[in-house]
Amino acid sequence: MSGNPSPAALRAAVRSQAHTGNTSGLAPGYVQCNIVILPCDWAYDFLRFCQLNPRPCPLIGMSEPGDPHLPALGDLDIRTDVPAYRVFEDGRPVDEVHSVEALWRDDLVTFALGCSFSFEEALLAGGLEVRNMSQKCNVPMYRSSVTCAAAGPFRSQMVVSMRPFSAADAIRAIQICTRFPSVHGAPIHLGDPQLIGIADLQTPDYGDAVSVHPTEIPLFWACGVTPQLALETAQPPFAITHSPGCMLVTDVRNSALAVL
Amino acid sequence: MSGNPSPAALRAAVRSQAHTGNTSGLAPGYVQCNIVILPCDWAYDFLRFCQLNPRPCPLIGMSEPGDPHLPALGDLDIRTDVPAYRVFEDGRPVDEVHSVEALWRDDLVTFALGCSFSFEEALLAGGLEVRNMSQKCNVPMYRSSVTCAAAGPFRSQMVVSMRPFSAADAIRAIQICTRFPSVHGAPIHLGDPQLIGIADLQTPDYGDAVSVHPTEIPLFWACGVTPQLALETAQPPFAITHSPGCMLVTDVRNSALAVL
C-alpha cells in the first residue's frame, strides 16, 4: 500500500488482504492501536493491568464481549481489519494469520491500546529527528528492570523503546509527548540505561539497534510490547494480538488525543 | 523578617529598611522579580534584548520613564521597595544601597524580570527536591558558552543555574517548568555540562556549589543574572539593579503565571 490512504480505505485493503504488512507511516494523522483480544473471563484482570500501568498500556478502546466492532474507533471489524494477527495458546504464540474470523468466539473482548506511532508523528511535526525513522528500521526495545504493577495473573517487566536526542531536543521531546498521555506520554527514563537494567543499547531485546551519537541522550518510553510479555506470563488458554508493526488503523485523529 | 508576611507587609518592612536582606522564601506564593533600571535612551535596546532572549530575560513588567510605580505588579515604589540595590556607572558596580530615592531621575525606566524562585516553588509543590534549597545555599550559576542574541550594545553569554535530579524527577521538572515560561520556563540543557562550556560543576561562577549524586542528571535553566552580564558589556553611564537574592516582591501570584 502506498500513498496516503484514508483510514477507511486502508482498512478495506487490509480486510481484502490486499495489504497484509506493516502499517508504519500509512494513513498519516490517524491513531494506530496495539490489539489484545482475550476471553471475557480474563478481561477483568487485563483491564485492571491496563488501569494500573497506563504508561505501557494506555487503553484507547474496548469492546463488548463477542462484539467484533469498536464503533468509537471507526467503522471496523476487528476480525479482519488488522493486517496480521498472532494467535496465542497458554501464553505461547502458535500461529500468525491475516484474519481471525474462523477463530472468533462470542466471549472474546478486544482491547485497543495507544501506540508510539502517534507521538513519533508529533515529534516529527515538531521538527525533531526520530532516529529509527531516519534509519528506516524498527525502534529498539528492551526488557527493563522496571516492574509493572501486577493484576491477577498479569505481571511483567516494563518493555521500553529508546530514541536518542540532543539535550535541547530531549527537552522538547518531553514537552511534546507530555501532551499525549494516551499514547505512552512522556518518557519514563533518560540518560544512563543501566539505571533501568539495560546493559547495552546496541543489543535490543526487540526491534533494531539505532546509532546514538556521543553527545546524545537516550530517552526511554514505556512500550506497547509490555502487554504481550504479560500475556506470556499469565498464560491464558487463548488470546490474539496484532503482529508487531501491523496495527489497527482507526478513524481517530492523533491531534484528538492531545490533552492540551 | 520571619513568618509568612503578605507582599504588601513585606514591601512596607523593606521600605522602612526594617528588612534589608535576602527575600528567598518570604511571601510564599507571590512572584519576585529581578530588577534593571536604565536611562530611557538605553531602554529601547535593553527591551529589544529581553524580546530576543526571553529565556534569561522574561519581562514581567516595565515602567513609564521617570515613573517609580509598576501598578500591574502591586502598589509599590521601585525607589524604596527593593531590599538592596546595586548602582552601576559605565557598566561597573560602584555602590550598594537600600534606597535609590536620592539617585532617582525622571528619565529612568524600570524593567521587572521573572525569577527562578517562582519555578522552585512549583517544583517543591510537585514533591521534588530542589538541591540548593535542601542544602540551604544559593543555586550554582555558570557563564555558559551559549551566546544570547545581541541588541545594540547589549550582548552576553547566557548565565545558567543548575539543579540536579534523578531521571524521573528531571522529566517531571521539565513538565512543571514548561508551564511557567515567564519565569525562565523549561531547562535549556541537561546532561553533559561541557556541551555548554561548563568545565566543572563544583566551581560555579556565581552562587554556591551543590552536591550532585552519581545517578543524577544536571538540569540547566537560563538565569536572571544574564542581564547583569549584558549591562557590564553595554556600559551604560548609569544603571541600577537589585542586589542578588534581594528581589522585588510583587502582588502577582506565582500560579497566575502558569500558562495552563
Automatic annotation (TrEMBL), chains A, B:
<dbReference type="Pfam" id="PF07286">
    <property type="entry name" value="D-Glu_cyclase"/>
</dbReference>
<dbReference type="InterPro" id="IPR038021">
    <property type="entry name" value="Putative_hydro-lyase"/>
</dbReference>
<comment type="similarity">
    <text>Belongs to the D-glutamate cyclase family.</text>
</comment>
<dbReference type="InterPro" id="IPR016938">
    <property type="entry name" value="UPF0317"/>
</dbReference>
<dbReference type="InterPro" id="IPR009906">
    <property type="entry name" value="D-Glu_cyclase"/>
</dbReference>
<protein>
    <recommendedName>
        <fullName>Putative hydro-lyase EYC82_01820</fullName>
        <ecNumber>4.2.1.-</ecNumber>
    </recommendedName>
</protein>
<keyword id="KW-0456">Lyase</keyword>
